[in-house]
Design a protein that fits this description.
The complex is a heterodimer of chains A (about 300) and B (about 325).
Chain A lengths: L5 H4 L13 H6 L2 H18 L1 H4 L37 H37 L1 H15 L3 H12 L3 H11 L2 H15 L2 H8 L4 H37 L11 H8 L8 H28 L6
Chain B lengths: L3 E14 L8 E14 L3 E5 L6 H8 L7 E6 L2 E2 L5 H7 E4 L13 H12 L4 H14 L16 H13 L5 E5 L7 H18 L2 E5 L3 H7 L2 E6 L2 E7 H6 L4 H8 L49 E4 L2 E4 L4
Parallel strand pairs in B: 3-8, 3-9, 6-7, 7-8
Antiparallel strand pairs in B: 1-2, 1-4, 4-5, 9-10, 10-12, 11-12
Chain lengths: ~300, ~325
């Protein structure tokens, strides 16, 4: 007796759906994100570990060792790898400590303006009607003010300090958050899953935070990174004009400002903080682009 | 069968629509005074062309859109006095497009469990267990639980939407064109699923559609809507065998034949389209009616009763 039915009765086992590739795997597959995060990571390490990394005190002046060139110049020395400035302060130490200021400004301004702008945009986009009109008026009023002029005026009146710069920029730079969040929310709001949540009895807060916010997050991240980069550049500009962070704090913008009279003979004084600034902003923008790609659900299959 | 579950009286929703910056805002009556009862256990079909107010009516039933006038009672209780969550627990929607009705950032189990979460029912584990049980009931294997909606097909997504609607054990399910976004081959699966669930769970459906074939197949009574009003209400067999209202007759005549070569059917409605802004004392259907008479344009048509329903018309 042979079992003739056996071969044909075999069912192919059901393959379970492949789970979505993990977030980390998708992040690693995006070169822009990896490069951007590495650049930010380097600056962040510099900022957090500044006392450990910097060979000298960034405020320590030594007028006998003024304007020592970096190590790759003929007259450079390994004692001061990036040379010294016009007051004889070790430039590497100042660049490392300067990372703290730039990063702090970028993150703090991003958070303050992000909270203001995202709240306004979500509320305007979700409720529409009168609320939208009021928010639109506030946005338009804000857009009519030139950021740099207002920031200059405020800093000139109140006096320049790190806190004043952060608050001024934070209270000024929320406009793009509000505009982008508003239109993104308007799009998502009309989709049926928002209606389904409402029909399930969800509160407005739950609908906005649980259903809408996760779906506008990619836009939020891109705006946040652009704004962080632009805040860092604005701080540099304000410091360059002498109205931002005050000396002797080692801000990259301030270092560029202090170096401008030595531009022709000691070029490194401007080039080094300028490069640091450019790399950080580049890193932030790359990371923003990469994160958007990774987080966009359409790409997942 | 005769117990009235949902009772709508004079339900109206109007929108104020701005037409250009300098003209005055006009009032659009999307739903203009609907009286309708939904009986326990029945399938009430609602048909009508695009823009006749079917979806606005559905949104009002679900309590998402407050009516501008009129009342709705559920089991004798005025819905506007009922806690929002109680209504949500007893009535749930299934939407047309399963591609936009599932949050792309939630996993399937979490989508299905959302109404439970909102209602604060059970612990996280209990909610998940209940979600998996309902998924099983609608024919979704548990292995989908941790996938995202974009990994599923249209038919599977609609099953997820149905599971979400059933997870709180509602009494009424409002199906707003639940199959019109699906492939034809999948449509019948979903319709059969809906009918099986109705039988097993004793559900009541309000079935909104412009697909008359589906309505004929599923519904026990049919309400025909035109410009925000119910123009005819009848048991399904009577309506399809003997439509009274000229608009219903035109709708039935407009059904496409599966026979190629027969061409497009002529509904004899002319080319005029309904104007929701028009305010006329007479019958709203008069401008398009093939059987129109002079007094139709000036006099409000009466509600002529027939067995199990009525038609709002001067002529028939």
């Amino acid at each position: 007796m042979t079992d003739v039915t056996a071969p044909s009765m075999q069912l192919t086992p059901v393959e379970p759906l492949r789970a979505a590739p993990s977030l980390v795997a998708r992040m690693l597959a995006t070169p822009a994100l990896v490069i951007g995060l590495s650049l930010i990571g380097i600056v962040a390490i510099m900022a957090f570990a500044a006392p450990l990394l910097s060979p000298y005190d960034p405020y320590d002046q030594d007028l006998t060792r003024r304007l020592v060139p970096p190590v790759w110049y003929a007259k450079g020395s390994w004692n001061h790898i990036l040379g010294t400035d016009n007051l004889g302060r070790d430039y590497l130490s100042r660049v490392i400590y300067g990372a703290r200021i730039s990063l702090l400004i970028g993150v703090a301004v991003m958070i303050i303006s992000g909270i203001i702008g995202t709240t306004l945009g979500l509320v305007a986009g979700y409720f529409g009607g009168r609320v939208d009109m009021v928010v639109n008026f506030i946005i338009t009023a804000r857009l009519a003010m030139p950021v740099v002029l207002v920031a200059l005026a405020v800093v000139a009146v109140v006096g320049g300090s790190l806190i004043v710069v952060i608050l001024t920029l934070g209270l000024l730079k929320w406009d793009r958050f509000a505009v982008v969040m508003r239109s993104a929310t308007q799009q998502v709001r009309t989709l049926d899953y928002v209606t389904a949540a409402e029909a399930a009895g969800a509160s407005r807060t739950r609908v906005i935070v649980g259903e809408i916010l996760p779906n506008v997050l990619p836009h939020l991240i891109v705006v946040a990174t652009v704004e962080a980069g632009s805040a860092i550049l604005l701080e540099a500009a304000l410091s360059f004009l002498g109205l931002g962070v005050q000396p002797p704090l080692p801000s990259w913008g301030l270092m560029i400002a202090e170096a401008k009279s030595f531009m022709f003979f000691s070029f490194w004084l401007i080039a080094i903080p300028g490069t640091a600034l450019a790399l950080l902003v580049l890193g932030i923008n790359l990371a923003g682009d990469g994160l958007r790609d990774v987080l966009a659900p359409e790409g997942r299959a | 069968m005769s117990e009235t579950l949902l009772e709508m009286r004079g339900l109206t929703r109007s929108f104020s629509v701005t037409r250009g910056m300098f003209s005055r805002a006009a009032t659009l009556h999307a739903v203009a005074g609907i009286d309708l009862d939904v009986k326990r256990g029945e399938v009430l079909g609602i048909v009508g062309e695009s823009g006749c107010g079917k979806s606005t009516l559905a949104r009002m039933m679900l309590g998402i859109l407050p009516p501008t006038a009129g009342t709705m009672r559920m089991g004798g209780v005025d819905v506007s006095q009922m806690p929002r969550r109680e209504l949500a627990r007893r009535m749930q929607p299934v939407f047309q497009d399963p591609y936009s009705s599932l949050n792309p950032r939630r996993r399937i189990a979490s989508i299905v469990a959302l109404p439970l979460e909102v209602q604060g029912m059970g612990t996280v584990d209990e909610r998940r267990a209940r979600a998996l049980a309902v998924m099983e009931q609608v024919g979704l294997p548990a292995r989908f639980a941790d996938n995202y909606p974009n990994q599923l097909s249209g038919g599977q997504r609609q099953r997820v939407a149905i599971a979400r609607a059933l997870v709180t054990r509602p009494e009424i399910v409002i199906c707003d064109e639940p199959t019109s976004a699906l492939d034809v081959s999948v449509q019948s699966q979903i319709l059969n699923l809906l009918m099986d669930l109705r039988r097993d769970l004793g559900l009541t459906y309000v079935f909104i559609s412009h697909n008359l074939g589906v309505v004929e197949h599923l519904a026990s009574r049919v309400a025909v809507m035109y410009l925000g009003r119910v123009v005819e209400l009848a048991p399904v067999a009577d309506l399809f065998a003997e439509p009274k209202h000229p608009y219903t007759q035109a709708l039935l005549a407009s059904v496409l034949s599966p026979e190629p070569g027969l061409g497009l059917p002529d509904a004899k409605l002319g080319s005029a389209s309904p104007d929701p802004f028009a305010k006329s004392a007479g019958c709203p259907f008069a401008p398009r009616c093939p059987a129109v008479m002079e007094f139709c344009r000036s006099t409000t048509p009466p509600q002529r009763l027939r067995e199990g329903g009525y038609a709002v018309c001067h002529v028939n």
